[in-house]
Amino acid sequence: MMIFALLTSFVTASHADAIRVRIDGMVCVSCEMKITKTLKSVDFIDNIDISAASEMMCADLTGEYDAAEVTKRITDLGYTVTSIERTPNCTVEQRKYP
Question: pTM score > 0.85 for this model?
Answer without folding.
Answer: no
